[in-house]
Amino acid sequence: MANTRAESVAALETRLGHTFKDKALLERALTHASVGEGAPVGIHGPRDNERLEFLGDRVLGLLVAERLSAEFPTADEGQLSSSLHALVDKTACARVGEALGVGPALRLSPGETKTGGRRKAGVIADAVEAILAAVYLDGGLDAARTFFDAAWADELSAPPSRTVTNPKSALQEWAQGKGRPLPTYRVSDRTGSDHAPTFTVEVSVQDVQPLTAQGRSRQEAEKAAATALLKREGVI
Predict the structure, then answer these.
(1) Suppose 210 and one of 51, 95, 204, 221 were both cysteines; which one would form an S-S bond, judging by CB atoms 3.0 to 4.6 Å apart?
(2) To 10 degrees, the CA torsion angle through 211, 214, 219, 223?
(3) Which residues pair with residue 54 across a beta bridge?
(4) 104-108, 168-172, 195-199: which has the minimum mean pLDDT?
(5) 107-127, pLDDT tens digit by residue?
(6) 3-class secondary structure, 216
(7) pTM of the model
(8) How far lies 146's CA from each of 18, 73, 132, in Å?
(9) Helix (H), strand (E), coil (C) string for 80-139
(10) Beta strands in 130-231 (DSSP E)
(11) Are residues 225 and 208 in contact, defined by beta-carbon separation less than 8 angstroms?
């Protein structure tokens, strides 16, 4: 198993398009918090990817804002903000991670592995943000930008969508306009630590296939789910 994971890590590094000078950074980015649960914190801080995830989230926000501003000069602030949220949320990061094949390279506890951690969208999304931070720390902003441009290419291919200030209200109005009951929201999963949780929420509307989305809070996940359903149904 160790050799298989080592091969997966090496293959992932190739797909990232960045050769790490400090291999420990990549290893930390791929290490889930479950690995070190109950272990003492080292002299350089925790050995899992949570701190890198925190940094990666900020780097990602900068790179997305930079790219959107350059590519859509006529878009207003509302359109740009809507697109930024869609590109940095957990659902988008999970899709990027799945395309990169992050799952097999993750370092998980036996328990997390048994519960399907390598396939959990939240775990993969967190690792992607941590990887972006690791590339940034190892090679600087230019290296992070190169990785981002390639890894988020598919996500960036769609232009900014029409702004919806309150997607939950918009979905409610749409459902009522169809003569259907109000949408319902259900938390289907909660992963991550207490200070950095990831919520998965399922939104349901009568006669419409349910849809799930993720966020750093229940409210964020509900908004993401409402937005995604509105887009799927061609409302926005």
Answers:
(1) 204
(2) -50
(3) none
(4) 195-199
(5) 999 999 999 989 998 899 999
(6) coil
(7) 0.70
(8) 9, 21, 10
(9) HHHHHHHHHCHHHHHHHHHHHCCHHHCECCHHHHHCCHHHCHHHHHHHHHHHHHHHHHHH
(10) 184-193, 196-205, 208-215
(11) no
